[in-house]
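Q: I'm writing up a methods section and want to include an example of the input and output format. Could you take the sequence below and give the corresponding predicted structure tokens, formatted cleanly so I can copy it straight into the document?
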Amino acid sequence: MGHPRQSYISQSETIVAIATAVVPQQGSVGIVRLSGAEALVIARTLFDAPGQQPWESHRILYGYVRHPQTGQIVDQALLLLMLAPRSYTREDVVEFHCHGGLMAVQQVQQLCIGQGARLAQPGEFTLRAFLNGRLDLTQAEGVADLVAAQSTLAAQTALAGVQGKLMAPIQQLRSACLDMLAEVEARIDFEDDLPPLDEPAIRQQLATVRAQVDQLLATAEQGELLRTGLKVAIVGRPNVGKSSLLNAWSRCDRAIVTDLPGTTRDLVESQLVVGGIPIQVLDTAGIRDATDQVEQIGVARSRQAAQAADLVLLTIEAGAGWTQADQALYELVRDRPLILIVNKIDLVAADGLPPLPDPALPVVYTAAAQNQGIEALEQAILKTIQADQLSASNLDFTVNQRQAAALTQAQTALGQVQHTIDQQLPLDFWTIDLRTAIQALGSITGHEITESMLDEIFSRFCIGK
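A: Here is the clean output for your methods example:
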């Protein structure tokens, strides 16, 4: 077909990959995974299982990985056998469970390649599971989301996709559209033999399907938030307590804190989870007219971070009040989603808190050095992004960007069918947009899929999955 990944789609070869993270001097176990017709042959060539251990499916063998030519022991390992079709790919799958770290798994992988296996490309195991009917496309994408999940809630919604909870409603919608298409086409082909088309019933079915598509699309923004997280920048003048705020929030000393203005010269990052949402927090250098060249670079990066952030925490010092420098920073970031942080309130009297520039601004009062106000800050963030709707009880699954685009296409096509009916156009015109909706819904589950779409989806997977 001339596609750059034609070999990627081919299942005639046995593939191999390291299926666990490879970290030097870390990790107690490393897994090398084989899948394909020669997986068992390669395993028998490389693995020495002493005694009378049976080479049967879904058994674990104990033994040694040996070099096939020299007989030298490469590793002491376990061998897991999963023979077709009772495996992840519905092919023969073999896993070498080796000692962790770098050398053992890399040597075992290289021995497998030497015996004829090919290094797997990103997502190729899951691709084979899809092509062999083990998973539909929503389940396959759920696997990728589960691997990449950065929070418990993200993992739960990804697992719902793996379990087919998104597949079921999409298939129901597609079946409803197919039923409508069959009704319409039957009247075109056998007009004289059948009663007239029940137009009110078709209208009702269209309305029902469109409402259900709307419900699925409503999860797209929440799903994107769970998958990619939120980038939050702490911005303010020097010495207003930005680094103390980061340390209190992350519950560790991520940033250096001193009484000297300009201590933070570069972006300091911390990864947090708030209300199930992954949050990347950036402590920026205090923004001022700096003369030091290094500090100037830090200030420039702070301005860039503020402009790129999904949410800005503009931090001021309670004792200093609202200064002209604060106003200048406010003008810089006021077009971004914003929360005003009034820090160091422990150093001023209750009636000495500064007046604020905009009564509509969400405000949080903190004493970061005393770990005060962090819970209020998190609640303000969730309220600002309306993330209180995200919970395991009311968010069973979410759609990703690709799925949302396909649902939008289906929704547009269904709306066009409705318009066609309203215009009293011939039935042939109804079928055009119904087919478009069916194709769009089928592209979500994999019933309607192209090689280029598969390449785009699975290239985002990690190697070994």
